[in-house]
Amino acid sequence: MKSKAQFYHAGCPVCISAEKSVAQSLDPARFDVEIVHLGEQGQRVGEAEQRGVQSVPALVLDGQVFHINHGADLAALK
Amino acid sequence: MKSKAQFYHAGCPVCISAEKSVAQSLDPARFDVEIVHLGEQGQRVGEAEQRGVQSVPALVLDGQVFHINHGADLAALK
């Protein structure tokens, strides 16, 4: 069964680079990766926060949050 | 052709978690992931540094460095 993974970002250059490289490099046999642009989907900032996301870009795999480099603090997106 | 990817870490809990989740989730059809433990292979700290790694855990994909969460600064491993 595939796991769902979320990649939260905000369109910043650091985010786009991480999306193209990391998020799109996950094993497609094991993960369905949902890309969430918090700049455009502000209503999902709360969801990201609840899951432990503190900054973007961030990848959530099996409930674990991995902050990748640093584009923007979540607070800046509210 | 497969790309070579390196995952640099230092054995810290944050590193191990990122290794198990992120590094081992990369598409095996596209990447050969080399795991480098800089705590045990101190002679490779210079190589990591030259590639732009500033802290561990870090993933290098196609020459791009992605720092994941934060376990330790590279300077602490010298």
UniProtKB/TrEMBL annotation, chains A, B:
<dbReference type="InterPro" id="IPR012336">
    <property type="entry name" value="Thioredoxin-like_fold"/>
</dbReference>
<dbReference type="Pfam" id="PF13192">
    <property type="entry name" value="Thioredoxin_3"/>
</dbReference>
<feature type="domain" description="Thioredoxin-like fold">
    <location>
        <begin position="9"/>
        <end position="67"/>
    </location>
</feature>
<protein>
    <recommendedName>
        <fullName>Thioredoxin-like fold domain-containing protein</fullName>
    </recommendedName>
</protein>
<dbReference type="InterPro" id="IPR036249">
    <property type="entry name" value="Thioredoxin-like_sf"/>
</dbReference>
